[in-house]
């Protein structure tokens, strides 16, 4: 009998798939989608091009992009019953829960022959990428008593999302910043929510169920939920002086509290996405005026580098994203839903890859309980 593999908490470093979607080298801060460096994709592509790359394996030609973009625009609208579902949810509920609910019932409107039907899978992917931004924007408006704003087909994916939030067409910089932020958050190999999507999809459950389960996973504060908490955390630091920030960081670390936006299972240097988001923040502040919270963030990065940099704890993607979103007027509790409308491209890419060579996930366990016990009568227990 072959030796049983050792138990690895959190499956850290344990391969769960063979994949060609996303390559990460955490020692040097390398991130590539289908072999293209994230820096080049963020500089030269739109989110639509990057989702096409993730889903189908190659960057689109001009004709392929036009056709793909037209399909996405065609599918941006929501069934009125999904809007009715949103209108009946408790308005104080978290937007990630509203998103999970809407996506879970989305599949009821698009029953397909079966997930093994390639065209069914493709259509599910188009609908989910196209509709998630509309759900998030619709919930944001419905929860405060306003009607949703219909999606437009003359705006790009990122610009249309910003437009649907408040009815204002974003300026060029805002649209570009949002587009790059979606690209940066689109994919990241075997993170918890992507693994969740693969596990659900491996049972041949439909893509809507797989994405709904991934949204639930992303919502956690140790994963996508961190970006919302980074801003709340930065606001508790009294000022950007090195003394105040150092004192705050030392106090947190002394209490073994996790500092949101820092650390990563894979990166042992600064997350390359944090570098790009930091540059976006600088562009926004140059145009719209500085934000004190950015100065606090930069000082915290410096202090954490001195305190725990040697342990490989550095800023991750969530550290600067919230500062960018806040400067763009996006409410804090929409930060993680924005992460979700980007990451849906990566979840679907991995789901399609899983289905190409599928085997249902069924790991094992190391038994640490008792066995072969006898049930005592109720009267004799305790
Ligand atoms: C995302 O996986 C992905 O790819 C995720 C993601 C993606 O794109 O999908 O990149 C997005 O989820 C980014 C991470 C967002 N989460 C946070 O910012 C929350 C704070 N970070 C930590 O919770 C933590 O760093 C994790 C969860 C991100 C990683 O946890 P690990 O790899 O399980 O590390 P660990 O908890 O075992 O910590 C190892 C050591 C511990 O110290 P010791 O007990 O060994 O002395 O490092 C310390 C930890 O206390 N540590 C931290 C820390 N992160 C790790 N100490 C303080 N603050 C932190 N943030």
Sheet with the most strands: spatial strand order = 1-2-3
Number of strands: 3
Ligand list: s-citryldethia Coenzyme A
The pLDDT mean sits at: 96
Q: Can you summarize the main beta sheet?
A: 3 strands, antiparallel
Number of helices: 16
Rounded Rg: 22 Å
The CATH superfamily of the largest domain bears the name Citrate Synthase, domain 1
Q: Encode the helix/strand succession as letters.
A: EEEHHHHHHHHHHHHHHHH
By CATH reckoning, the class of the largest domain would read Mainly Alpha
- End-to-end separation: 41 Å
Can you walk me through this structure?
The chain is mainly α. Helices cover 55% and strands 3% of the residues. The chain contains 16 helices and three strands. A hairpin with a 4-residue loop joins strand 1 (22-25) and strand 2 (30-33). Helix 4 (80-87) runs antiparallel to helix 5. The model has no long low-confidence stretch (mean pLDDT 96). The site of s-citryldethia Coenzyme A has 20 residues, from helix 15.
Give the helices and strands, then pairings:
Layout (H helix, E strand, L loop, with lengths): L21 E4 L4 E4 L2 E2 H7 L2 H10 L5 H13 L5 H8 L7 H12 L11 H25 L14 H10 L5 H13 L7 H11 L4 H12 L7 H9 L7 H13 L17 H17 L3 H17 L8 H11 L7 H22 L26
Antiparallel strand pairs: 1-2, 2-3
Helix pairs in contact: 1-8, 2-16, 3-6, 4-5, 5-6, 5-10, 6-7, 6-16, 7-8, 8-13, 8-15, 8-16, 9-10, 9-16, 10-16, 11-15, 12-14, 13-15
